Structures are given as structure tokens and as C-alpha cells.
Amino acid sequence: MTDKQQPPPPPPKYRSLASREKRPSPFGTTLFVGLRAADAILQYHLLRHNWAHQVIRALHGVPATGVSAAGGGGGGGGGLLGLTLYGTIISALALGSSLKQIIFTTIISEQEMQPGHALAIAAFNTVFNTANTLLSVWTFSSVAPAPTHIIPPPPRRRSAFIASSPALLAGIALYAVGIVLELGSEVQRKRFKAKPENQGKPYDGGGLWAWATHVNYGGYTLWRAGYAMAAAGPVWGLLVGGVFFWDFRRRAVPELDGYCERKYGDEYIKIRDRTPWRILPGLY
Question: Which end of the chain is more exposed for a tag (fewer CB within 10 A), N or C?
Fold first, then answer.
């Protein structure tokens, strides 16, 4: 073996749930889209019909008053579709997560979505979203601002209501940054791959990817942490964000690095080595 020849990287220690095969999968994709849409509807109805309150009571907890369905006092007026403002925010975060994943699966990704993977990924997301919804109405964990009986004009009332809960405000900000970071980076890579001259090449690490080799994972971590924080405060937000960060660092990044090394060789290694961070700039 000459100096220029390198042994192939060892097989990855961790397996990704996602398929690396690029081919149409209409059944799996349709199943995934339907399940993610159903999740958004479920989270809305948990709040609109006070089902989340009933679950909290069944678990011997105390639900917060007027946090979800409008008309119960508290939770901020000015919500939509029969929800309080806080309930609308929590429901919108669930909807946003579903829309982001539906857009990625149907427009951006070229990888097949196997039915088993569709079920597992959708169920995983629904479990986390349902946990956020339940915690958002539990008195012990909810970060809904305290109800007020002083009602200024609607625009001022809404902004003041959100700003009165630092955890809610920070959670919304983290969620927005994370969604833009994940989806924006995927769009940039999609545009690069769509050019004929880039076929068979790894993404060159420009744009958002210049910040971190797996910046899309960083975006996912941020919006998941922000969603959790808006529902149940900084402790839950840090716990959820920490779990995803740990999983990406220990499982997903090594698996994807191994795949890219085997597929692209030194070309990918050079891009990875010149990129200063792996997941989140300033953190890892």
C-alpha cells in the first residue's frame, strides 16, 4: 500500500434511522405527511377541547386555569380558533414543526421514506410535541404569563403578554432561529446539488454550512429546545436540547461522517477539516 492509498473508513458504529437511498417512495412519504399533519391537529385539539387538562388531572396534577381554550380567564386574549393567545402559540409551534418536516420530505429530500421509518419518526415527534402540550397546561411547569384584568388595545396587549414571560419569549426566539437555520441550510444544499456540475460532489461548505459541518442538526437542536422552553421553561428546554445535542454528537454525526467519507473520500474530509465547528458555532 503506497503513502497515497488510505484504508477505507471503518463501518459506522451507529446506524441512522433515515435511508440513504435516493429514490421515490410515494407510500412512505404520503404516510409520513399524513401522520405529521395529524400531529398538528392532535396538539390543537388537546388544547381546544381541554383534553390536555383532563390528562393532567388523571395524573393527579393541577392544570393551569384558562391556558388553552379561550373564555376561561387568563392565558391572554387575542388567540385564534378558540384558543387563548398562549394556547395559540403552543399550537403554532407544533404546526410549524410539522410543516417544516413536511416541506423537507416532499420538496427538499430525495431520499426514500420507508413506511417503517415514517411511522417511527412521526411517532417520535408526536411524543415530544404531546409532552410539550401537556406540560404547557400543568401549573407546575407552564410558563404562561399570569392572567391580567387590564386589557390595553390588542396589538399592545399581545406583545406585552408575551414579553411578560421571559421563558416564553426566549423559547419563541430560539424556535424561530432553529427553524430558519435548519430549513435554510437544507435549501442551500438542495440548490447546490441541483446544478449539473455539482452532481456526485459533496456540498462545498458555503453559506450557513460554513459555520458548522452539520449546521442543520444544530438548527434542529435549537428549535426543539425553544419549543420545549416556551411550553415548560428553561429546565425542560435545556434538558430536551441537551438530549438532542448528545444524540447528534454521539450517534448522528459519526454515522453521517462515516457515510460521507466512504462516498466522497478526501474531498469531504477537506471540507470538514476547514469548517470550524461540527454542530453549533461556539459550542461544538
Answer: N
